[in-house]
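Cont'd.
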Amino acid sequence: MTFEIPDDRRYAESHEWAKKTDAEGVVRIGITDFAQDELGDIVFAELPEVGDELSEGDEFGVIESIKAVSDIYSPVTGTVEDVNGEIIDQPELINDDPHESGWLVAVETESGIDHLLTASEYEEHI
Amino acid sequence: MPLRKPPLYQAHLDAGAEFTDFGGWEMPVKFDGISTEHAAVRNSAGIFDVSHMSEVEISGADGAELMNRLTSNDVRELGGGDAQYACILNEDGVIIDDTVVYRYPDKEAYLFVPNAGHGTQMADRWSEHAHRLGLQVSVENRTEELGLVAVQGPDAIEIVDNRSADSITSLGRFSMVRTTVDGVDCLVARTGYTGEDGVEIFFDVDDSKPMWDAFGNVQRCGLGSRDTLRLEAGLLLSGQDFDPETEPRTPLEAKLGFVVDLSKPSFIGQDALEALEEDGVDEALVGLHLNERGIPRNGYEVTFGDESIGHVTSGTMSPTLSEPIALAYVDADKAEEGQSVEVTIRDNSIPATVVDHRFLNTLSDDE
């Protein structure tokens, strides 16, 4: 089984990705293709609200598939700037398109993402 | 204890299945995704390898008497080739396991199917009681010798009929016939655990591959979709919705009173259930429908305001209804359909409504 691991972003060992956006200091966060495949049919996502503070390595939400409940961990420290409302109604977007329309939150951070794994390092990891 | 692998393990592995430990067996949990497999069974058909289920054969002059002593239903109602659902109870009337009891169509014997990992325990139980009562009975645990697949869904009968030597279209619900499927000798029974029409097929374990391959174009389904299908149909899961250790429940609490025949000759658990029927149950199984987002799971608390009134035993996002559903035991005075309650999910109190625990009634002519 091969998974998509786009090299335009960085990765956490806990299977989240972080990608810089056009806005200065704002990164989008989601779960990886590998993670969505492990979970199977995703039916529920519990996400933070705009303004919530996230800390790197801390859980910030829950994704549930039919069979499993999985915590998701923030790859950066910062403030939630936007939440993907589409996946509340269509959590299956995370399965269908984990790296683009299935993104979870956007976070304003001062830490950047360079401390995270590169695509090739993440590929080694999984 | 190492996990036992089903005879079709390699075939499932080659088909890309993911596996899970279930009742001491390493069984496929999914092939192509739970939603896909679930939809196939509701809309057309799917096939399950359920060879992890146990099979115990009872023969001898006193076979019926022993079966009636150790199961809750009345096997005297079974003609040749008939089957019935029953509970296996302890002296307190608590369900140890549930089972389907088949009376063979072609010989004077019974075959009953305890859940995975229960075969040895039940064969021992039957032997002990036969000995204690001085009954002429032969008890044989055939779990190792018999394969079992389930073909389920609205198209299942036609699919099996096309491959069987004898027509099965007129086979009644809870009936069994001996025939061949694609040349493999087998017993075909119109039973199942999905809430859909369909059959379960018993055969010599050495014929597992040809039997499975006979249905090569039918959607392969794992235990994941089996669980969501049975839950939508309000069918209980042994070891989870009742369990003598972790969830001790009587059939009256579990809404399985319809498989308890209190009028038949003495059986294990009868006295306890008669007393309970007189006194009424304190808690009862209900269906719950969540009124807001969230997935109810095994162990989650059910509340009524500040009061804890029960807990969830099974729950999921129903693939058919696209709504969160659960089975729960709650205080009997909160078990009426329409009752408002809450389910606690990660410290949040989610409003829920008590509903018929048969969320989908696709087989309305069933009990």
